[in-house]
Amino acid sequence: SQQGEEDPQALSIQEGENATMNCSYKTSINNLQWYRQNSGRGLVHLILIRSNEREKHSGRLRVTLDTSKKSSSLLITASRAADTASYFCALGSTLGRLYFGRGTQLTVWP
Amino acid sequence: DGGITQSPKYLFRKEGQNVTLSCEQNLNHDAMYWYRQDPGQGLRLIYYSQIVNDFQKGDIAEGYSVSREKKESFPLTVTSAQKNPTAFYLCASSAPGTGGIQPQHFGDGTRLSIL
Fold this sequence. Notes:
The complex is a heterodimer. By secondary structure, chain A is mostly beta strands.
């Protein structure tokens, strides 16, 4: 399979806590991207990490990539209720397309 | 503001009917994509186009058709051959770039249901 697999499928935390989501994959990738989807809306791009990078930060987001283990993680620090959404990893190939996983549903309780 | 506009937001199809979903972008992106999303599932690629007048089948193209006559437009037709069309359809676009596929910008989707 060329898609990523997110873990856990669902995550429920309190405001202020950190949220960590993982993505594992089996194929070679060009880059790996994380997206967020609020209920009933389109996806929003969060961060892209290239295959030769190990870590990237953007605001409260931290993404790591371990190509030897074929895995990536997305950390959201100091979560807020507004972070409640589904989060997807997407594998970037050289074929001009992305392969999306099934997502992690994050719920942040006030 | 630049972005992607999908219309309509909700669409109902009768048995044996073809319906067309609209996707327009003003981001000047070369590449455009159509995805299908079923409840609790990820996105599955239907068709994509990397340049005007050219498009490729994705993973689930059967029962769907597309055209790319203009850079800003990539309409999707759900034909009567698609027996289970009820889903959320998302259109996306991306700019060309080196280092692999660039971030995709998404519209807000069209929800298609069977009458």
